[in-house]
Amino acid sequence: MSTQRTAHGAARTVKVSKYLSKHLRHQPERIGLTLDEGGWVEIAALLSAAAAHGFRISREELDHVVASNDKQRFAVEGTRIRASQGHSVPVDLGLPPAEPPAYLYHGTVARHLDAIRAEGLRPMNRHDVHLSPDRETATRVGARRGRPVVLTVDSGAMHRDGHVFRRSANGVWLTPSVPPRYLRLPGPR
């Protein structure tokens, strides 16, 4: 396979992944989809809606994006698909509460540190704050927005203090918020 075809294939995979994220996490109604309460939609309905809105995706392409996504952003169950987490539309992923490891990590960039020091981590337009199980993953997450800064979350103390954690199918830890007292931030406090 030529380098040009490989690059095109990789670019198309990213484009399809972003399209799926947008419509399975944030704007299903934009292409006429209705997610069920768990965030699921029939794959046939998704492919048909995408095609009707000028973005054709084959079933093979969809399966490739689901299987090859390094963050496992999507889950397929039978004839249905959903985003694993990160929704801004109302869904109940049905994730049971779980005891987190002693420490989790959050990737961000320096320009957000003052607000984080004052308010902690908030979900912003999502349902929950997303935390990573290791520094490497948090570094990659933060790097999407610039030079990454990795914050350490004392998730063990949060859990002992009654904060609820859930773990998504792809290993991302979710919690409604992280108050500042549970964060270790770089620089002056």
From TrEMBL:
EC number(s) per entry: 2.7.1.-
NCBIfam families: PRK00819.1-4
Enzyme class: transferase
GO molecular function per UniProt: NAD+ poly-ADP-ribosyltransferase activity; tRNA 2'-phosphotransferase activity
Protein name per the record: Probable RNA 2'-phosphotransferase
SUPFAM superfamilies: ADP-ribosylation
One Gene Ontology term from the biological process aspect of the record: tRNA splicing, via endonucleolytic cleavage and ligation
Function according to Swiss-Prot or TrEMBL: Removes the 2'-phosphate from RNA via an intermediate in which the phosphate is ADP-ribosylated by NAD followed by a presumed transesterification to release the RNA and generate ADP-ribose 1''-2''-cyclic phosphate (APPR>P). May function as an ADP-ribosylase.
